[in-house]
Amino acid sequence: MGKEIVLRRVRGMKMLALAGAAVITLGMTACGGTDDDGSDGGSGSNDKTVKVGLAFDIGGRGDKSFNDAAALGLDNAMKELKIEAKDLEAAANESENDKFERLKLLCTGGYNPVIAVGFVYAGADPKTGPLAKAAQECPDTKFAIIDDQSVTAPNVTGLVFAEEQGSFLVGAAAALKTKTGTVGFVGGCDVPLIHKFEAGFKAGAAAAKAGTKVLSNYLSTPADKCSGFNDPAKGETQATGMYDQGADVVYQAAGGSGSGVFKAAKAKGKWAIGVDSDQYNTVQADLKDVIITSMLKRVDVAVYNFIKDQAAGKFTAGKVVFDLKAEGVGYSTSGGKIDDIKAQLDKYKADIIAGTIKVPEA
């Protein structure tokens, strides 16, 4: 129930390639890392070691997408601050209690802050789910959760994004580049968060070229624990079906399953759009040429800023929004395939920031 904050400026961050990252598990040392009163001074102070716990979603480090973006934020913070870090990965088909135990293990181990990567840590009922329980049992620990704003506790911050705005831009790119007039969207799980990606993508495609047909499909539902975020084979099958139906550009918001979409694009001689990070820079070399752009979701910036604020003793519970104006979302230009339409996309970006274009979320 903390006040809503919209970040207006993001500084000091550079886009870095996500490649070959290893799990960071630093040895625990006797220190005052659990002290969060900020008495050591301002941001960037080297007098205090911050013990940061990161609880990944399924796929963990190495998914070349969502989890890796969170890991990059931690890695960047470690270059600037004195940090001890421990990250733990979720397992497929685990229970909500397993997620709670992971968060509890980190907070009782003295890690503060603890960052939950993914809305799944909110649980089916955000009042009694994994994060709410952990926040209640560890009241002195500051928590953050990526992609959720439903957990309202005095020691929880929800780091959320305007995914629909970034998706609008890549939807416009898809419509401007398609030769068949048909494009596709593959979502990892049929949940409101991923609906934002689809809604923005469709709106952008319609704005750029009226009549563009958008094929949509989801790889999983909450009933099967959103397994579609880590099923490349299913991603490849769904994308192949869309290419067979005439799509020549497919946008995936499917986490680790996105690699399957890229493989399908390669096999069919078509194009694809990445998500979260600049996936042109993270996929295997033979798949680079199928990626025309990626919808950038700066999870790395959100994680970095949260850790840096915590090191400075700054914490405000509630929702923090990363939108186009805050450079929290955007699109990539690696590979040069959309250089010819960049001016048009930037015009859409300016109109969204100005409020001239209102992008739907559902």
UniProtKB/TrEMBL annotation:
Keywords (A to Z) from UniProt: Cell membrane, Coiled coil, Lipoprotein, Membrane, Signal
Coiled coil: 71-98
Keyword Lipoprotein attributed: yes
Source species, domain of life: Bacteria
Gene Ontology terms: cellular component: plasma membrane
Places the protein is found: Cell membrane
Keyword Kinase set for record: no
Membrane topology: Lipid-anchor
InterPro entries tied to this protein: BMP_lipoprotein, Peripla_BP_I, PnrA-like
Domain (ABC transporter substrate-binding protein PnrA-like) ranges: 55-361
Signal sequence segment: 1-30
Family: Belongs to the BMP lipoprotein family.
Protein name in the entry: BMP family ABC transporter substrate-binding protein
UniProt source species: Virgisporangium aurantiacum
